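In the laboratory, one determines a bound structure by crystallizing the protein with its ligand and collecting diffraction data. In a computational setting the workflow is compressed into a single prediction: the sequence and the ligand go in, and a structural description comes out. We illustrate the idea with pyridoxine-5'-phosphate.
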Amino acid sequence: MTIRLGVNVDHVATIRNARGGAHPDPFAAALVAVGAGADGITVHLREDRRHIKDTDLERIASSPEIRLNMEMAATDEMVGIALRLRPAACCLVPERRAEVTTEGGLDAAGQANALETPIRSLRQAGIRVSLFLDPDPVQLEAAARLGAEVVELHTGSYAEGRDGELERLRTGAATLRGLGLECHAGHGLTYANVSPVAAIPEVMELNIGHFLVGQSVMDGLPGVVKRMKAIMLAARG
Ligand code: PXP
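The predicted complex, in structure-token form:
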């Protein structure tokens, strides 16, 4: 039984944007991640473009080496961009301008009317549609009614260590199997907490971002410090 890793490169863009230049480049990071075994690349084009920019998304979407999962709000603007760029998959997420990150799952049950048309348009274009949901049976059943093929379970509460959350994820994954939907999961996953989620047999894909980018700094820092020091010393002859 296999499980895929989708690497979210949004926070490579966060670091790049802190200086307004071109380094580090999320597209180059995406190619490195794929070269290292990532099964796909996930990016969230937010309405305020706080990290990933349209040009980043366009470059990633046009690379034949990259299987792109585009996270997005179900707005006309985002659906239009997805229909133009044709990512392999779209994960519909709730989006509030003031939030630091995607704080909760989509309200698929309450927002069914608003979600129906975006889901249908994306699916008609051959894009695999996923909904980012809390592991709540009411929401999972709504996803099935809406015609989503995939649900990504929000692992944020589990990652915060709340009691009973792992069991909710397990039950949610089993419910999705019963509904005939593919189960993905993500948010807040780290080396320390990923194993119990990766062990849930129905979970076919994990999407992980912030930890991977942060840990890359820690793992990469010794090498880049050594190289910078070597360049400086070489300049002194
Ligand atoms: N999956 C979805 C739907 C998300 O919105 C996010 C955050 O952008 C992630 C996965 C990745 O979360 P994290 O950056 O905490 O690993």
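Residues 8, 10, 44, 71, 91, 93, 101-102, 132, 152, 186-189, 207-211 surround pyridoxine-5'-phosphate (CB under 6 Å). Keep in mind that any predicted model is a hypothesis to be tested, not a measurement.
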